[in-house]
Design goal:
Number of strands: 16
Radius of gyration: 26 Å
Helix content: 25-40%
Number of helices: 15
Length: 475
């Protein structure tokens, strides 16, 4: 879609006058929130610039340096003020002012320099510049270029008339109530949900509804902007998923998760006071040789099925394929005479399919229901029956059939008592910095030690199919 939009953009002539540009801006940015109102006002001020071929974003003002703040929250003291602006880039500022513009289109505008995405730096030495003098200060800017206080970015005026790429997800009352029931925690900065298994986090080919689209409809509450994803869970896994409620909190959370992954080290492993922790519960086939341990095995992507699909696998140092460092802590919670083991998994890095690959290829114990990385083991699968479970003799023998939840989710079936169990991987606990309090303190006092903030302790209950498997193995 981005390519189609882009072709439409470059073929469409710009408005013939600055007045047309202002009119187009007012109609395009109406009801877009505070930032978009600022865009309109900013355009009125600079409507004579380049005869209406450009419109101006608001001048960049001070904001939180999320990269530096993330390091401090993780216990890495950095000299300087967390409210400094060095982390704001041209692309980030455009997305903050114009969230309705497709990121893919903006990246093309930056790459194709003939479209001249430009910025104007404020020069306080001479306040009586003519328009012509100001034009000489305009220069091309790259997507990752840092911007300074007062910088104003100019975009081609025709991008205001592009349709929004965001899909609208219409939900009925039952679906809205179900989505609200998933919420574990909410404050001014974040919203946390217990993602059900089977619900995709993001849209894609063959996906009709995804959690990010549903959240944009059901979890905005009184905010003008929708919650945004800051990390991922596989479609078939379940558990704690954090979303940012504002652009600022989202950027900070992105920085936290990125810093957590890039700085994973032996020092952090030995540090009992970890600021960002995730603990997963997994049921695996077999049992690890050691009751606990640390897995440090790099991961890489390979193409299989004659280029039709991809999978992640363990890579050695001699491989020509690019690899990513992946570290996972594990410990055995409980073993069963049926040949299954409950593991607690704590990823110190956040790589795609990291836990699934480490369990299957390093420990030799694939996760129950993981047909991608444990398909050979599942060829020999035999369902587990329980004749006399403790407590309720009927609960574990009969799996509920036919009950479909909102969004066409089947949340009841999939335990080890069935021939095709679902993935048994659940993010059950997360320790997260109180982002809302951190942002509030940094804005009010630059001397506040945000590393001393209390953390949030989040817990998500097991999905029904995993709870049923737990009951069976403990009967």
């Amino acid at each position: 879609m981005a390519s189609i939009i882009f072709r439409r953009f470059i073929r469409r002539p710009p408005p013939s006058s600055a007045g047309d540009a202002a009119s187009a801006s007012l109609s395009s940015f109406k009801q877009r929130g505070a930032h978009h109102s600022a865009v309109v006002n900013s355009q009125e001020e600079g409507k004579n610039m380049n005869s209406g071929k450009w419109f101006a974003l608001p001048p960049y003002d001070s904001s939180v340096n999320t990269s530096k703040m993330a390091k401090e929250l993780l216990g890495n003291r950095i000299e300087g003020d967390s409210t400094s602006t060095s982390s704001m880039t041209a692309l980030k500022w455009i997305l903050r002012c114009c969230p309705q513009l497709p990121r893919s289109l903006l990246q093309k505008l930056f790459r194709l320099r003939q479209l001249q995405v430009r910025r104007e730096s404020v020069n306080t030495s001479n306040s009586n510049h003519s328009v012509k003098a100001q034009q000489h200060q305009l220069k091309r800017v790259a997507a990752k270029d840092p911007i300074d206080l007062g910088d104003r970015i100019f975009l081609p005026v025709t991008v205001q008339e592009l349709p929004s790429e965001q899909r609208i997800c219409h939900c009925n009352n039952e679906e809205i109530n179900f989505t609200h029931s998933l919420v574990l925690y909410k404050d001014p900065a974040i919203v946390v949900v217990n993602k059900p298994h089977g619900m995709p986090v993001q849209g894609g080919i063959g996906i009709k509804r995804s959690l990010d689209e549903i959240a944009a409809t059901c979890l905005k509450y009184d905010y003008s902007e929708p919650p945004r994803l800051v990390h991922r869970l596989d479609r078939d896994s379940s558990g704690i998923l954090v979303m940012g409620r504002t652009q600022e909190s989202t950027t900070l959370l992105h920085s936290l998760f990125r810093e957590k992954t890039s700085n994973a080290s032996q020092n952090e492993i030995e540090d009992k006071r970890r600021i960002l922790q995730r603990r997963y519960l997994a049921l695996v086939i077999g049992s690890p040789r050691c009751l606990s341990g640390l897995i440090s095995a790099p991961l890489g992507k390979v193409v299989v099925d004659n280029g039709k699909s991809e999978r992640i696998t363990i890579m050695d140092s001699s491989s020509m394929v690019s690899t990513q460092r992946a570290i996972t802590e594990y410990r055995v919670i409980q073993s069963s005479s049926h040949g299954y083991t409950w593991l607690e998994l704590s990823p110190l890095t956040g790589r795609k399919h990291q836990l699934r690959v480490h369990c299957a290829e390093v420990l030799g114990t694939p996760i129950v229901g993981d047909y991608k990385y444990g398909w050979q083991t599942h060829k020999k699968w035999k369902q587990v029956s329980c004749l006399n479970p403790k407590g309720n003799s009927n609960e574990n023998q009969k799996t509920p059939k036919g009950k479909i939840f909102p969004f066409n989710l089947d949340l009841e079936s999939g335990s080890i008592s069935e021939m095709q169990p679902r993935l048994h991987l659940h993010c059950k606990q997360m320790v997260l910095p109180n982002v809302s309090m951190a942002l509030e303190h940094v804005k009010t006092s630059s001397k506040y030690d945000i590393s001393e903030l209390q953390s949030l302790h989040l817990v998500a209950t097991l999905p029904p199919h995993m709870q049923r498997s737990w009951n069976i193995l403990n009967s």
